[in-house]
Amino acid sequence: MSKAFLPLALLLAVAACGPQPPQVTASLPADAILGAGDPLRSAAANTSVVFGAPQQLAGRPAEAARAVAQMEYLAVQIPDNPRFPGISPTAGSQFAAARREWRGALGIPAEQPPQAVIESLYAASRALQAGQRDAAAAALPANVFPQGGQTTLLRLASLPRLPLTNDAAVTASQTLQRSEANRGRF
Questions:
Q1: Which residues form the signal peptide (predicted)?
Q2: Domain extent for 127
């Protein structure tokens, strides 16, 4: 190593040891995967179907809430997951664009952490399934859903077509299928 390069290499090594931004993580609640076993597989299978035929979600805010929560989870899990070494290098930007699309449709600020969105949407979905619409609205706090729970429920009941979200959901499903085929599981 040349003497001129040594200080630069040392500076880069020290900088790499400095504080790193926290890794964004997300998980799905236990009731998200009943019968599926693998939350990634369950989320990919569900979202690739429902966002491919969005009319299935019309008037069904509980199901829409679950599907959006699953997309939040996939957006964290798919792009950098070591389980999928052959994933497209554009997957990260694809999921980022899709996240902007579904968050825009629901009025969720970009800075909200995925886990807060996931937990709120699943809580609202559970309340709706129990017939408790007021509890569902209350499960969507204003700091995560600034337009309020009632407005968010209306938006969930009438989600617009989300083509970027559908594309990302299909990417997730295809990624899992390729991964499983490469491991001889498909």
A1: 1-26
A2: 36-182
What whole-number distance in Å separates Cα of residue 74 and Cα of residue 39? 9
Q: Is residue 5 part of a domain?
A: no
Q: pTM, whole model, 2 decimals?
A: 0.83
Residue 172, helix vs strand vs coil: helix
Output the CA–CA distances (angstroms, integers) from residue 126 to 18, 73, 116, 120, in the order listed.
42, 18, 16, 10
From the list 41, 75, 106, the residue with the least C-alpha distance to 168 is 75
Higher pLDDT, 55 or 124: 124
Residue 123 within any structural domain of the chain = yes
- Residue 180: band (very low, low, confident or very high) from pLDDT cuts 50, 70, 90: confident
Q: Is 21 among the domain residues?
A: no
In the chain, the N- to C-terminal Cα span, in Å, equals 49
pLDDT band at 67 (very low <50, low <70, confident <90, very high): very high
Alpha helices in 51-145 (DSSP H): 61-77, 91-106, 114-129, 133-138
pLDDT at 4: 53
Asked if the structure places residue 147 within a domain, the reply is yes
Tell me the average pLDDT of the chain.
85
Overall number of domains in the chain? 1
Closest by Cα among 114, 102, 108, 94 to 25: 114
And the tokens for 104? 């825009």
Rounded CA-CA distance 87/48 in Å is 17
